[in-house]
Amino acid sequence: MKISKLLLTSTTSLSEDGFYKTFTRILKFLIWNLRKILKRFYDVLHLNISIKRSPFNLGIYQKAYSQSHLEHRPFYNIGAADFFHPCWTNIDFISSWYKQDSQLVIHHDLMSNEPLPILTSSAEVIYTSHTIEHIKDEFVQQFFNEAFRSLKAGGIFRITTGPDAETDFRALMNNDEDWFYWDRSHQQKGSFEHIFRKPATEVPLVERWLHHFASQLAPNDISDSPKKFDANEIYDLIDQHGFPKVLDVLCSYTTFDPTRPGNHVSWWSHEKVIDFLKRAGFQTTYRSGYRQSASPLMRNSELFDSTHPQMSIYVEAIKL
Question: What is the DSSP letter of 245?
């Protein structure tokens, strides 16, 4: 009922009861419409807040690229897991270990030596986070070769991996248990059995160190391996070969197990990553840092560089 009709009713009703009934009807009408106005205001405000809080930063993309170009999603996340961005294409090894949404991921096995499913000189950016430590050196080199082929001139390749082998070894030599902080997430019942025989923190530090780059060789890891190295054997190899040669010796025993793709089978430092990039053809290579990409697209820590930044290394290369 319109307010004008309600007011008309109020002027023609002279009884006290009639006045109060009319007044109550007007008040209910105003309250009902005020609720609708407030709800619309809330919806608009909530939408604006959601847009501002969106991790996608679409404005950066729209400023640099046309809409038709963005529709091709020429930004690639290799080893994407559950990553999602409407402008990016996900490529990963689909398995029950990572439980990716297969509708959002292009399956690719980096250990197959097959070309990346990317057209030559078509990618604007390629990003990979904590992927190369899960594949053997020769296949990492093939991956980097393919990244170089796939990128456009001026395209950026960003690699983050870990643990940083140099800091990792220094922490072991200093008996710095605090450096191995992530093992604490695998010490409560129900948190470690899919990886370890017993809590990760209940074994010698040197065996925990071994697990960082040669997972299946660690005695506490449940993965099958022809050879397991206990603490005394590891220290003997360190004394015999020194750093970093001991890492190569131990990694020579590792193999890729497709049923356990989360195992680490290789070690990495800034210098080693840069060396592999140069072999792939990249002339411009450099150490980067957390949220320090040369590309503004990859500075958003809600989407990038969020995996163990304390122990990670960051390297970038630009295709000239």
Answer: H
The fourth-level CATH superfamily of domain 58-162+268-318 is Vaccinia Virus protein VP39 (3.40.50.150)
User: 125: helix, coil or strand?
Assistant: strand
Residue 57: both structure tokens together: 């930063």
**Does the reported pTM lie above 0.90?**
no
Which residues, in sequence order, are CB contacts of 156 under 8 Å at separation 6+? 124, 125, 126, 293, 294, 295, 298, 316, 317, 318
What are the beta bridge partners of residue 317? Answer: 157, 285
Identify the sign of the CA torsion 200, 308, 53, 78: negative
The phi and psi torsions of 155 (rounded to 5 degrees) equal: -70, 150
**How, if at all, do strands 151-161 and 88-92 pair?**
unpaired
Every domain of the chain and the residues it spans: 3-53, 58-162+268-318, 165-251
Amino acid residing at 78? I
- Residue 205 CA to residue 192 CA, distance in Å, equals 17
Strands 313-318 and 284-287: antiparallel
pLDDT digits (tens, 9 = 90+) for 248-300: 999 999 999 989 999 999 999 999 999 999 999 999 999 999 999 999 999 99
Rounded (5°) CA angle 288-261-313:
15
Strands 151-161 and 313-318: antiparallel
Q: Which two tokens stand for residue 239?
A: 């004394």
